[in-house]
Fold these 2 entries.
Entry 1:
Amino acid sequence: MEQSDRSARNVSLAIGRAPGYINTLLREDKQPSLSNLVSLCDELKISVLWLLYGVEMDDESEEMLKIFSSLSEDGRKDFLKLVRSLSALNQ
């Protein structure tokens, strides 16, 4: 919020929450619901992934993650095996 020069109150209201919502999260070390987290990230124009892990994902990486998450357990194992093999070839 500091980078966007917006107050916690302004952002709280913009995502449809009470004026003190974000301050309460920060002060009381509470966790927002998933829907509030997504709304917060949308409002601040940041990705949930960046907020949680500090990494940004390009479109291709996001597509790979979506494909991966749609696979069966065996498909995921095969996918990982393939990606690890490709990675080893590039080192």
Entry 2:
Amino acid sequence: MCGPRGTFSRRRPLLTTAAGKAMPAFLEEDEPNELLVAHPDQNEVQSFLAEIGTIREAGVVNVRSPFGDTSAVGCPVRDRAGHVVAAVVLAGDPDGILKRRGELSTLLENATGRWATES
């Protein structure tokens, strides 16, 4: 996987990434539980499930890499029927993302909202 500034990075555990949280967080009520039942770290799953309400209310996911090198804002992509089919993420320098988090969140929500009606 190619990381920031063209460097190669290691694979990240699902629930430590913005896309890995955005997709299951915005699924129908019981779907995240069903999807994550085989996840190897059930403590991580329980922590994630505890924050789903907050994520859904915000409409986006904000994540800082556990390695400290990247922060990201992620948003679900929905089809016309409203089903989550993908996630889009803006990632970058932690300070830059943090300073622009509100602006980037709005940008993602607006773009994905248009995609759902145009797809």
